[in-house]
Amino acid sequence: MSNGRILRNSQIIILGVCIAAATIASSIIFSKGFMKVMRFSREVITVTGSAQKEITSDYAVWYGEFSRRDADLATAYRSLKDDLEKVKTHLISKGVKETDITVSQALTQTFYQKNEKGNDTNVIEGYCLKMSVCVQSNDVYGLEKMSRESTELIDQGIHFESHPPEYFYTKLEELKIEMLANATENAKMRAEKMAQATGNRIGSIRSAKMGVFQITPVNSTEVADWGVNDTSSLIKKMTAVVTVSIAIE
User: What does the CA dihedral 209, 215, 219, 225 come to, rounded to 10 degrees?
Assistant: First the structure.
């Protein structure tokens, strides 16, 4: 009887030792795994990479406005129609395709006589009719030259106003992919230099965050959190920024 009790006690002790050993072993394994996870999450370097490229606009938009004022509405409109023909003839003579010209509807503004207090009366003094033309073209250099020469219409007795052209680059989406790749490579190079300075080396990229694109005049240093999209310059500079976290080995 006592021998059986001793055997059971021995078995219990052995079982307890095994459980304790298993608990210790699992704790060690868990601790090593936890330390690896901590090292994986902590031993990283975060750098910002950038890439720049000069681009030439391949599409331009230009607006011009002209107006006529007369006491008689019909007379003002006839004069405006005559001016429109002169404007179109002038633009075509400068190399603009007629299909690239868009003409707006005529806008009418009515002027009233003032009383002795400077307030409008019900008596119509005259009318001002205004019309605009828009030229959209892939010939950006030709359009730039034409916009500067459009004020020659003033010599023809036309009250003409020329707006500065707006310049665009139509292949931005394709370029963005290239620029992001270059910016990421630049970030990786910076991380390598920083790691080498401390006797380490870099591993895989843990995360990457794209910044906003800045499209500015070539010599501009303008930056905005929401991005810059310059349309005033024919030749401009595109900047891409990427923030990358890279493992340190």
Answer: -50
Residues 229, 234, 236, 240: is their CA dihedral positive or negative? positive
CB distance 109 to 130 below 8 Å = yes
Phi first, then psi: what are they for 97, rounded to 5°?
A: -75, 140
Question: Is 147 within 8 Å of 134 (Cβ atoms)?
Answer: no
CATH topology of domain 44-57+169-249: Translation Initiation Factor IF3 (3.30.110)
- Contact between 53 and 237 under an 8 Å Cβ cutoff? The reply is yes
CA dist list (Å): 122 to 108, 114, 127: 17, 9, 14
pLDDT in tens, 159-216: 999 999 999 999 999 999 999 999 999 999 998 988 888 888 888 888 889 998 999 9
Q: Which run of H or E residues covers position 164?
A: none
Residue pair 49/192 in contact (Cβ under 8 Å)? The answer is no
Q: Which residue has the tokens 């023909």?
A: 85
CATH topology of domain 59-168: Alpha-Beta Plaits (3.30.70)
Q: How many CB atoms lie within 10 A of CB 208?
A: 15
The SS3 call for residue 233 is: coil
In contact, 39 and 248? CB cutoff 8 Å: no
Report the C-alpha gap between 153 and 91 in whole angstroms. Answer: 10
24 is written with which tokens? 């210790």
pLDDT digits (tens, 9 = 90+) for 73-95: 999 999 999 999 999 999 999 99
